[in-house]
Design a protein that fits this description.
The chain has 317 residues and is mainly α. It contains 13 helices and two strands; from the N terminus they run ααααααααααββααα. The protein has a two-stranded antiparallel sheet with strand order 1-2. Bound molecules: Phenylacetyl coenzyme A (FAQ).
Length: 317
């Protein structure tokens, strides 16, 4: 619905009133430039995260320990590709093209979730990624399913349903290995030790240093803050990890009776920025894999374009 009001101020007022009423903003509607910019930034980063996120687990498809695990992992990795598709489409509704977004990713300029720049060293990493990384993603994305921008919130509903399966398959593995042989127990504990902190970083910067949160909260893109979601995640995960006889790699972790929260130690934001700026353990490898995949897919893009041209010329039905 285009605003009929002549001034930006009135349009902004009407836009904010719509958000306050819980209405969704749709692609053709008037929106502030900053709302559009923030959505393109966040949705494209999210899409890239899903696509790059296929790589750490994808590396294990050929090494799955049995047919059942292989089928589940194949389905999960394929789902992440689908999530990337929904999200690139959602971003396209805001006026950016798929080509522009991919160019930013492949040139190394675009951000994507830092967690995917860590290596998957053992099979147990697949269980722990499913449980912790998908768990953190669901916590954040269940909130985003209420976002004020219609295409993004609707994509989140579908994505969260699939992420629920991802988390369960990971948790099932962690439970099994936690109750398994001493070797399996050690392997799953080691995986938790390596993925715990990167998973906490998935919720973004602390509220008092996040440059984007204020405007995202004001316009109903985020409906809960980074720290609120991170705390909810810690409160849910810590008792479950302990119940399996496993530990959390945080010497400062303690239960605060007064607030009912598990207080966690300091997150290493220097490490976070190192990884986000391209210096994580696997940044170069991840980008090289995406570039290779893009090059390998050139013939598909050419074939699709040739078919579209022929169809437009009436040469095929
Ligand atoms: N990694 O002001 P904030 C998944 C950047 S999908 C890298 O706090 P914001 C599925 C941020 O972009 C996981 N960069 O930022 C899966 C900003 O830079 P900019 C992805 C980060 O946006 C599972 C700057 O720092 N999920 O896992 C990170 O308000 C398993 C300042 O930070 C989404 O993308 C980070 N962790 O809050 C796939 C959800 N955190 O752009 C395969 C949508 C912050 O100003 C296997 N996104 N930065 O230059 C969001 O909810 C938000 O963007 C946050 C960050 C919460 C991620």
């Amino acid at each position: 619905m285009e605003s009929r009001n002549p001034t930006d101020a009135t349009q902004l007022q009407e836009f904010e009133a719509r958000i306050a009423r819980g209405e969704k903003i749709e692609p053709g509607d008037w929106m502030p430039d900053e709302y559009r910019r923030q959505l393109i930034r966040m949705i494209s980063q999210h899409a890239h995260s899903e696509v790059v996120g296929m790589l750490p687990e994808g590396a294990w498809i050929t090494r799955a320990p049995n047919l059942r695990r292989k089928l589940v992992l194949l389905a999960k990795v394929q789902d992440e590709a689908g999530h990337g598709q929904y999200l690139y489409h959602a971003a396209e509704t805001l006026g950016i093209s798929r080509e522009e977004m991919l160019a930013l990713l492949l040139s190394g300029k675009a951000k994507y979730a830092s967690v995917f720049n860590y290596p998957t060293l053992t099979w147990a990493d697949n269980g722990v990624i499913g449980w912790l990384v998908d768990g953190a993603a669901i916590k954040n994305q269940t909130m985003l399913a209420h976002a004020s921008y219609g295409p993004y919130s609707r994509a989140m509903v579908r994505i969260c349903a699939e992420e629920g399966f991802h988390m369960k398959q990971g948790k099932e593995m962690v439970i099994m290995y936690a109750q398994g042989t001493p070797g399996q127990q050690a392997m799953v504990q080691d995986a938790i030790n390596r993925w715990w902190w990167p998973a906490l970083m998935m919720f973004g910067l602390p509220d008092d240093t996040s440059p984007n949160s204020e405007v995202l909260m004001r316009w109903g893109i985020k409906t809960k803050s980074n720290d609120t979601l991170r705390q909810e995640f810690v409160n849910e995960m810590v008792p479950e990890i302990h119940a399996l006889g496993l530990t959390v790699p945080d010497p400062d972790l303690r239960y605060d009776e007064a607030s009912g929260n598990w207080r966690y130690g300091a997150i290493d934001w220097d490490e976070f920025w190192q990884v986000v700026r391209g210096n994580g353990p696997c940044n170069a490898e991840r980008l090289a894999a995406r570039r290779q995949a893009h090059e390998d897919g050139a013939w598909v893009r050419e074939a699709v374009a040739a078919y579209a041209d022929k169809r437009a010329a009436g040469l095929v039905v």
